Amino acid sequence: MSKSFRIAWHAVIDEESILEGRSLVQADSDQAAASKLIYEKSTEYRLRQQWVMIDSLIELVNE
Q1: Spatial distance between the Cα atoms of 31 and 24, rounded to a whole number of angstroms
Q2: One digit per residue, pLDDT tens: the chain, 63 residues?
Q3: CA distance 31 to 22
Q4: Rounded to an integer, what distance in angstroms lies between the CA atom of residue 8 and that of residue 54?
Q5: Are 42 and 49 in contact (CB under 8 A)?
Q6: Dist. CA 49–CA 32, nearest whole Å
Q7: Any idea what the Cα angle at residue 3 is, between residues 18 and 46, rounded to 5°?
Q8: What DSSP letter does each residue of 18-46 carry, written as one string?
């Protein structure tokens, strides 16, 4: 069953540039959500995957 996660993240591009964002990710686990976000953002912004850092990861409860 797929769960929803709200992930706050950032990437340091160089000494003066920081990219920040919040994303909603669908995945089966928190680890899968983090991996999916890192892959998507590194591809979207053409970043190295190690540059994308997770600030917070919260599972959203569907009622």
Answers
A1: 14
A2: 789 999 999 999 888 899 999 999 999 999 999 999 999 999 999 999 999 999 999 999 876
A3: 17
A4: 6
A5: yes
A6: 15
A7: 30
A8: EEEEEEEEEESSHHHHHHHHHHHHHHHTT
